[in-house]
Amino acid sequence: MPEATDSELMGKLVSLCKRRGFIFQSSEIYGGINGFWDYGPLGVELKRNVKEYWWRCMTREREDVVELDASIILHPQVWAASGHTSTFSDPMVDCKKCQGRFRADQLEEEACLEKPSKSVAACDAEKTEPRAFNLMFKTWLGPVESEENAAWLRPETAQAIFAQFKNVLDVSRQKLPFGICQIGKAFRNEINPRNYTFRSREFEQMELEYFIKPDAVSAAGEPSSEGEGEAQSRPEDWGWKEWHRYWVDQRMAWYRNIGLPEQQLKLHWQTGDELAHYAQATVDIMYRFPFGWQELEGIAARGDFDLRQHQQHSGKSLEFFDADTRQKYLPQVIEPSAGVDRLVLALLCQAYGEEMIPNAQGKPERRIVMKFHPRMAPCKVGVFPLNKNRPPLVAKAKAIHDRLKDRYLTAFDLTGSIGKRYARHDEIGTPFGVTVDFDTVGDGESDHLKDTVTVRDRDTTQQTRVPIAELESWLAEKLA
Ligand code: ATP
């Protein structure tokens, strides 16, 4: 079957996402609103699976990471201290001919408003000089719209973690290294939202701030017996470079564990102008989307910049008291910061496939199949009575569905031929289809098949006969 081009693939994916209820344009009945998206029933489940697995790996399974759920609007001083009020901006130019506004650093990728087949860079109309456009959404607290009452929707979740560092430290009795993580909404008034949900104005982040000893306090600051620059072997002795590497490796492994293959991922080490002035190092985890390699997550070694800034602006000490060395110091930070929506989009792109498979008569038939990793698949199991007009089949299937639905998102589907039901579930990526047939209820040709069901594997289309009594453990193993 001929491969779809990348832009065809995006078109097909967007249409499937709407048709099957993954993603809708926000406020669609009013013509939509640029940069905002709504997740439909299956999109919500996919997104929850992403967030829950991140939460499980980043905090539940670790003893050194605790949680925070902070407000979206913070004291305006937070953004002054972090530098967002003055510098969280993109360079913008106006086209004097079509009046379009574009990101000055993306003119090659932006389409001209009058001739969308041309890039803005290729259009010779006169443009203004680039000027800084602040990406934070501004609002006012209370009834008076004055500058004293100005506030901002958070453009990232991280700063609330720094602002609450002391409170969380006091209650969690952690020693360094330890982390605080958070999942939540962030808002950026992007000049040109695009590539579907990839660059949105409202999105969710999953962020960890991992606080470590400064190198001068850990053994990393001392000459190593293994030679300068080499990794220290004991985590207690690690400096920021080792911890940074540790989190890059952890996060890459995490992406592989949810079904993004090695060859679709790469690391981009920021250099020169890309690197924020305070960052010791930043690595972006990139995924190969149909529209090119793009960032999924940034992992930054931020030094003590944020805590130092908040300490200075608030006048409150944010130092950590190290009971072992009896020293007080500001910890340094490693920050893995990922976007939920971008990851959901990557999973959708990765899962989408079209292939020919034999139908019930053995003739080749085209199918669309979403090959989500079972861990991420929104609906885990479909339960199908072979014939909806046979009450014993329906009752048995219903009983199986009722048992499974406590544990997994399980669909009960009666309508259409069994082939149609398989096809429907292939399109939403349900990993397993459980069919209750005449043999299951003892009306079939083989007595030994009573109380067994057929389980169909979405990817191979292979069918396996499984005893009902073993079905839950069989599925548990495959869906772990
Ligand atoms: P980009 O360079 O693509 O604008 P960024 O480097 O500004 O991204 P960060 O500030 O590092 O992004 O934010 C961390 C993560 O938040 C990103 O890796 C991305 O997954 C997500 N993210 C940032 N901006 C957006 C957006 N406009 N829409 C969706 N997700 C976003």
Short overview:
The protein has 480 residues and is of the alpha+beta class. It contains twelve helices and 23 strands. The radius of gyration is 26 Å and the shape is globular.
Tell me about the largest β-sheet: 7 strands, mixed
CATH topology of the largest domain: BirA Bifunctional Protein, domain 2
Sheet/helix structural class: alpha+beta
CATH homologous group name of the largest domain: Bira Bifunctional Protein, Domain 2
The CATH class of the largest domain is identified as Alpha Beta
For the secondary structure, the number of strands is 23
Shape: globular
Low-confidence residue ranges: none
User: What's the rounded overall pLDDT mean?
Assistant: 93
- The Rg value, from CA coordinates, equals 26 Å
Brief descriptors of the model:
480 residues; Rossmann fold; 12 helices; alpha+beta; five-stranded mixed β-sheet
